[in-house]
Amino acid sequence: MMNSGKPVELVTRANFKFTLNENAISYFTSSGFQDMDVAVVTIAGPGRYGKSFILNFFLRYATHRYSEGHNPDDWLKDLNRPLTGFPWEKESERTSTAINMWPEFFVCNKTNGQKICIIFLDTQTGDERNTSAAEYSCIYAICSMISSVLILNVGSSIQETYLQQIEVFAEYGKMAIADSGVKPYQQLLFLVRDWRSPFQYPYGFDGGQLYLKQYLDSESEDRKAVKELTSPRENIPNAFQDIQCFLMPRPGEVATYGISKEFQGSLKGIDPKFVSNLGVLVPKILSPENLIAKTINGQKVNVKELYVHLMKWVDLFNGPTMPVPTSMFNATVEANNEAAKENALNWFKEEVSKSTGKNYMDEEKLKKTLMNLENLALKKFDEYHKMGGSKYSQPHRDSLQLTLKIVRENCEEENANLAHPWAKLMREWGNRMCKIGQAVGFLLFILVVNDFLAYLEIHKLNEVAGRKIPVMEFTFAATLGFILYVYLTYE
């Protein structure tokens, strides 16, 4: 339940280094979620503008509809309920940088029967005075890479600074499009808080789109001659598949940040216009028909595959400056191929388990089945929409093939142990007898050598005495003993 949990630090930053919380992997590899398609809703932006405050209403909707199964039309009916979820009361005092994750993953059952897991991320940053432009760019880049919807929460209006910070990593989009023809990032939503000109551009999506179109117009006379103004307006649309804008009114005097210490986030203390627009904004993002599944290179990824990519991306941003687009591309390619390999290997293991069971299977039939599944797993890897071409994918394919071979051989060995209730015992007995045979053979060899030495000694004595010895008989016995030793030893 939403009001019983606390956010989990997913990514932290200190001394120019981003660190992925290793304990968070358990959420992404949980058997209940790891194979589901995933939608990631992230809110980012400078401090002091109520990011966590508004994200908690997204949590409330998801809890009401997906966890508790209530009528989605009733999610704003309780006017006295305090606002819980991500801590929001002291947002302006934060100075550290982090990406926090809500520990409950929500499951949406779409009308076509498909299940999709919903993850919420909240970014923690200081305000513009305590956070560098490079740090904002890194946070925005990581969030854009991992999210299906990135909400950029800004105050009063969109600023040039925000566009410039986004453009820094939007350059990577050119390489991604050249490789696959697909824009790398999905939806970017500018959420403009405390909008002051509703008569010029009305609240909501309609007014927001008009405002955004005017603001991103690179052909206006006052921008055409200035590269710093035209460049982000050309590059950002080429990096995101969809860009939208929503204009939000002020939440009211009681709810305005810092006005009332007694305010607990209940709707009765919030301006009705704000509540009304919440009723439009949140379902537009989270209702089943609008929910956007996370894709990379045009291919849907599941929860576990998303974590594989996140590990590569976080490592990429460990430095005082933004990585170059080539590094971003290579990291994504590497993660993409790792996910393809993991996907094929997991499929192979599941199919082997289904096909073989726990009973003995005819060895030839088993071998044929496993080889067929191995070929299908490699085909699955080949058909996965990977970036970078065969130059990048071949080493991963070779590694997969080796792993599949090991799994196959282990399976064949386990099956052999099931051949007959007495088979394992007989093999163990045979192994012991072989060791005994080797010992006997060695003993015979010693006897042969000893007899040969004795023969030489006797031969000398007999020569002195003038007597003959049965050379042929002795040679035959010695040869037979040696052959028996060799046979028992090497069989």
Throw out a few tags for this protein:
Methane Monooxygenase Hydroxylase, Chain G, domain 1; hydrolase; GTPase activity; alpha/beta; Rossmann fold; 491 residues; 3 domains; two-stranded antiparallel sheet; nine-stranded mixed sheet; single chain
User: Class of the largest domain, according to the CATH hierarchy?
Assistant: Alpha Beta
Question: How many beta strands in the DSSP annotation?
Answer: 11
Structural class: alpha/beta
Low-confidence stretches at least 5 residues in length (pLDDT < 50)? none
Q: How big a fraction of the residues is strand?
A: 5-15%
The level of helicity is 40-55%
CATH architecture of the largest domain: 3-Layer(aba) Sandwich
When the domains are counted, the total is: 3
Supply Rg.
35 Å
Q: How many angstroms separate the termini? A: 67 Å
Q: What is the general shape?
A: elongated
CATH fold-level assignment of the largest domain: Rossmann fold
**CATH homology-level superfamily of the largest domain:** P-loop containing nucleotide triphosphate hydrolases
Count of helices? 15
> What would the average pLDDT be, to the nearest integer?
80
What is the N-to-C succession of helices and strands?
EEHEHEEEHEHHEHHHEHEEHHHHHH
How is the main sheet built? 9 strands, mixed
